[in-house]
Here is the input.
Amino acid sequence: MDRSWIQISNRLCKEYVDSVEAFVNLVENHLNGEEKTRCPCRNCRNMELKSLDDVERHLHRLGMSFSYQRWVLHGEEIDLSILTFLVKLMHIKVLNRWSSKSFDMLLQILKKAFPECANISSILL
Ligand SMILES: [Zn+2]
Here is the structure.
């Protein structure tokens, strides 16, 4: 999917407005239980939970974060399978001689930061 619209500085042009609308339509099916989602605007940078109306307003006013090219927090599938992710994670642990305690701490923080992916870390905990 073309993400070049993220770089458009004129956020009033049709291409930008249509692209924000397409993003909002995509995210509509991935709201949390409180009808909120992470706001990918340049100010919030996916750290804040907002209503879809607020997210749309932020995207028009502030623009989408340039670095948010893969919309994994908004329903876009990632290429990495769960198994591949776990194998890579264990590989990093072994290569760096992480203690089990530090690895568990990493999994806990991943679980808190990405609650929608909690099932991944629960496999190892
Ligand atoms: Zn925002």
